[in-house]
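User: Design a sequence. Structure:
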């Protein structure tokens, strides 16, 4: 079997305050997203999101059902969002082929029985994915950066000049609860999601990439008045419970993918925390 999904349980914010470095990393950090010829990931009880990566090297990799789902096939009761972070990739969805260039996305709806990820002829295929429970079946749709809703925010003076590509959001593609997008920081900028925020209506996961070798990112999490941090490397992901901020700063610029699942599809639904109120 070429799929390995680990289960992680929810954490209470009061318990989180007592975690040491090792516990924080074990519960929230996904250190190895890509394993050759395998689908790897974490099934988190935070809104039951599955976060992971797919790395077909010399043979196709099929999305198989896992024990956590107790389903006949993976997408029997789920939807899937993928973003290509490697070489141009090909995905077969119930017999229909889709080609994804670097940083293009694909939404696959509930009820799709077969998804096959093929090795790339142009380099290493690295496909990042999020999957959430779904109540309805919506069509498969490819989304390029040209199709995305694009917003540029911040400034170089504040070290957070960035472009946000809203790829799998309800203004671009119909989904049940899954939202995904990508934020690129300009050279000279390092801060993401600042001012920080929380949203009790949905959890979030971040995946960091495009980070130059030898650099690192300090990702911040926890309640606004009781924050902690995790030092992260390129091609790693982190889980953010509904009570936690999710923000970071790198030793150079980078790109990250944000994915959300939960109560609503309102991208702007957030409770902003002023930087001076963080502790």
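Assistant: Done.
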């Amino acid at each position: 079997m070429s799929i390995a999904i680990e289960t992680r349980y929810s954490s209470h914010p009061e318990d989180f305050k007592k975690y040491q470095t090792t516990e924080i990393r074990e519960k929230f950090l996904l250190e190895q997203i890509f394993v050759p010829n395998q689908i790897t990931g974490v099934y988190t009880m935070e809104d039951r999101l599955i976060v992971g990566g797919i790395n077909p090297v010399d043979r196709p990799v099929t999305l198989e059902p896992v024990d956590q789902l107790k389903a006949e096939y993976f997408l029997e009761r789920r939807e899937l969002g993928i973003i290509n972070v490697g070489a141009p990739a090909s995905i077969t969805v119930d017999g229909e082929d889709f080609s994804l260039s670097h940083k293009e996305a694909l939404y696959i709806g509930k009820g799709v029985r077969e998804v096959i990820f093929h090795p790339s002829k142009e380099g290493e295929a690295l496909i990042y994915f999020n999957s959430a429970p779904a109540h309805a079946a919506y069509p498969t749709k490819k989304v390029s950066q040209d199709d995305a809703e694009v917003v540029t925010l911040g400034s170089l003076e504040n070290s957070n000049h960035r472009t946000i590509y809203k790829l799998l959001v309800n203004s671009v593609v119909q989904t049940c609860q899954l939202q995904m997008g990508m934020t690129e920081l300009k050279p000279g900028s390092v801060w993401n999601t600042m001012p920080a925020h929380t949203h009790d209506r949905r959890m979030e996961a971040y995946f960091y990439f495009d980070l130059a070798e030898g650099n690192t990112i300090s990702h911040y999490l926890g309640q606004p008045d009781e924050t902690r941090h995790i030092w992260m490397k390129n091609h790693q992901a982190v889980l953010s419970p509904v009570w936690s901020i999710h923000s970071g700063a790198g030793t150079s610029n980078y790109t990250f993918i944000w994915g959300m699942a939960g109560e609503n599809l309102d991208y702007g639904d957030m409770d902003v925390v002023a930087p001076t109120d963080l502790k």
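The two ends are 45 Å apart (CA to CA). The chain has two helices and 24 strands.
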